[in-house]
């Protein structure tokens, strides 16, 4: 129920990729609807003109619901080109409706509950440790990846546990879909230790209501 990994390139519109990926997943879960939606539409047509700059996914969902009414299909808008362009929304093209959104409390047990009950979650994260990531379960320290500073947005798609038989320990972790292409990480995915707000993963979490 997770759409393919995309690549945001040199545009810092991770907020658009996280929101779109979350909506795409929820459409598949609730309607068996495999849509490919347009990040470029959000970059160009959001009234706050964030473009390739940073913003929160929560604000993105608010804009999608209150100002845009949803997100256009990729096929109904200009191809992604990693920069802000003039909005060229054809009024004959209707967006896929997004009728609401919800913020999840910064609690990782609550996040796991909503992930199981509802579907993938958009989340802010400090990307410092991701920039050094080359596979496995990442267990960064707060000193190397402060949970108080988030600068990137991702999609949490699952969670699991890893049993280290040699150390006789169990490591809980999140399964995270990123937007830096399939050549990054584990085919575009990231595994982050769960339960201690590593890199601020629980700081700003939300999901949409699709229709």
From TrEMBL:
InterPro entries: Papain-like_cys_pep_sf (IPR038765), Pept_asp_AS (IPR025661), Pept_his_AS (IPR025660), Peptidase_C1A (IPR013128), Peptidase_C1A_C (IPR000668), Peptidase_C1A_papain-like (IPR039417). CDD domains: Peptidase_C1A. Belongs to the peptidase C1 family. One of its GO terms (biological process) is proteolysis. GO terms for molecular function: cysteine-type peptidase activity. It comes from Danaus chrysippus. Residues 1-209 form the Peptidase C1A papain C-terminal domain. The lineage of its organism: Eukaryota, Metazoa, Ecdysozoa, Arthropoda, Hexapoda. This is (African queen) hypothetical protein.
């Amino acid at each position: 129920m997770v759409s393919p990994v995309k690549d945001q390139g040199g545009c810092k519109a991770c907020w658009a990729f996280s929101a779109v990926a979350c909506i795409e997943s929820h459409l598949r879960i609730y309607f068996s609807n495999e849509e490919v939606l347009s990040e470029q539409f959000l970059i160009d047509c959001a009234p706050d003109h964030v473009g390739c700059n940073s913003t929160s996914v929560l604000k993105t969902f608010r804009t999608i619901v209150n100002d845009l009414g949803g997100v256009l299909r990729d096929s109904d808008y200009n191809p992604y080109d990693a920069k802000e362009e003039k909005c060229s929304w054809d009024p004959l093209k209707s967006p896929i409706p997004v009728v609401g959104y919800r913020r999840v409390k910064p609690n990782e047990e609550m996040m796991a509950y909503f992930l199981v009950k509802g579907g993938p979650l958009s989340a802010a994260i400090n990307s410092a440790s991701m920039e050094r990531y080359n596979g496995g379960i990442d267990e960064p320290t707060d000193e190397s990846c402060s949970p108080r500073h988030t600068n990137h947005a991702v999609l949490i798609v699952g969670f699991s546990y890893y049993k280290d038989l040699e150390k006789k320990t169990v490591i809980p972790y999140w399964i995270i879909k990123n937007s830096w292409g399939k050549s990054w990480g584990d085919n575009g995915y990231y595994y982050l230790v769960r339960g201690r707000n590593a890199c601020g993963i629980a700081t700003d979490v939300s999901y949409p209501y699709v229709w």
